[in-house]
Design goal:
Blueprint (H helix, E strand, L loop, with lengths): L5 E3 L4 E4 L10 E4 L2 H9 L6 H16 L7 H16 L6 H16 L5 H31 L7 E4 L14 H10 L5 E5 L6 H12 L3 E5 L4 H6 L5 E4 L3 E2 L5 E4 L2 H10 L4 E4 L23 H4 E2 L2 E2 L12 E4 L6 E4 L2 E4 L5
Parallel strand pairs: 4-5, 4-7, 5-6, 7-10, 10-14
Antiparallel strand pairs: 1-2, 2-3, 8-9, 9-13, 11-12, 14-15
């Protein structure tokens, strides 16, 4: 029912090129970890859980490379490779979490059988993928309890199957509520500048037969003012120890509008997105993207030559704008008091 962002094969992975959606559904097969890094940077694969899974497989693929060395030396090589993979996108904590988890398996191996060593890394990447499927399903179950029959949900960016190893984070809630027979509607912010809401979320929900309406990002305020939004549900790329949320640029705008209009604002994320090593959103590195993503679209220049550009990929929503967090362990209260 749900599109797969990544499909593992034997010593290779197939990655759905999300830059081609919704026009074409094309999988690229990679057997070199460096190509997977490029795929992550180019946003062929994106979404915090999905790039974490891709990073784990990238490290496992690097271990399988035909390098004439022993296991102990290979461990040292993989430590450097892990750093290279983690630097591909710095904001989403899942990437570093999954790569480090796989690297820990490498360092814990005490034998000298290279094939067995490589097999352990591949198995760990697969375990991360399977675990994410289960986490997504759990978030869907818990989150669906917040959704009433007839609700209309606003979401921002893409936090569905395309962003995870399962049915999604925010969209898992929507899928679960839909499967329960609840008559729900969804408004999807287009999500400038790369239109993940228009190209990915709207496509995903349409494929699943869910009533979805696409809107420009700046329409979320009037939708709330008109009383047409029951709640906001979106995902996260990293959640700090105090509950501050890093997510796609524009998320904070939606959170401010939701609080102003008394609309519940929910963040859906698995345990791997909660980073206890950063105290607040101020400590989360914010990735800045190329100016080309702002001044060009579809091969057409949309801004004057030489214009200065500010292009953060993410913003920070303070915890006191969050009504609740939908996690794989249940619904946790946020810091917002209405």
């Amino acid at each position: 029912m749900y599109p797969r962002a990544l499909i593992p094969l034997e010593k290779t992975v197939k990655i759905l090129d999300q830059t081609r959606l919704p026009g074409e559904m094309i999988y690229n097969e990679y057997d070199d970890y460096r190509d997977i890094i490029v795929s992550i940077k180019k946003l062929e694969i994106r979404g915090a859980p999905a790039i974490g899974i891709a990073g784990a497989y990238a490290l496992a693929i690097a271990a399988h490379a035909d390098v004439d060395t022993d296991v102990e030396h290979l461990k040292r090589i993989l430590t450097d490779v892990a750093t290279e993979i983690k630097n591909a996108r710095p904001t989403a904590v899942n990437l570093a979490w999954a790569v480090d988890r796989t690297l820990n398996v490498a360092h814990a191996y005490g034998g000298d059988d290279k094939n067995e060593f490589c097999g352990h890394l591949w198995d760990e990447a697969t375990a991360i993928l399977k675990e994410d499927e289960e986490l997504c399903a759990a978030m869907g179950r818990y989150g669906a309890e917040l959704i009433k029959d007839g609700d209309t949900i606003l979401t921002h960016c893409n936090a569905g199957a395309l962003a995870t190893g399962g049915m999604g984070t925010a969209l898992a809630v929507i899928y679960a509520a839909h499967e329960q027979g609840k008559k729900i509607k969804v408004y999807a912010d287009e999500t400038r500048p790369l239109l993940q809401g228009a190209r990915l979320t709207a496509w995903e929900l349409q494929q699943a037969g869910i009533d979805v309406t696409l809107n420009v990002d700046s329409a979320s305020g009037i939708l709330m003012r008109q009383g047409r939004i029951s709640c906001v549900i979106l995902g996260a790329d990293r959640i700090a120890k105090n509950g501050d949320v890093a997510n796609k640029i524009g998320t904070f705008n939606v959170a401010v509008l939701a609080r102003a209009h008394g609309v519940p604002f929910y963040v859906a994320a698995p345990y791997s997105t909660f980073d206890q090593n950063v105290n607040s959103g101020d400590d989360i590195p914010i990735e800045e993207r190329s100016a080309d993503e702002i001044v060009n679209w579809g091969g057409i220049r949309t801004a004057p030559e030489g214009i200065k550009v500010y292009a953060p990929a993410f913003d920070i929503t303070p915890h006191d704008y969050v009504t609740a967090y939908i996690t794989d362990k249940g619904v946790k209260p946020g810091g917002r008091e209405d």
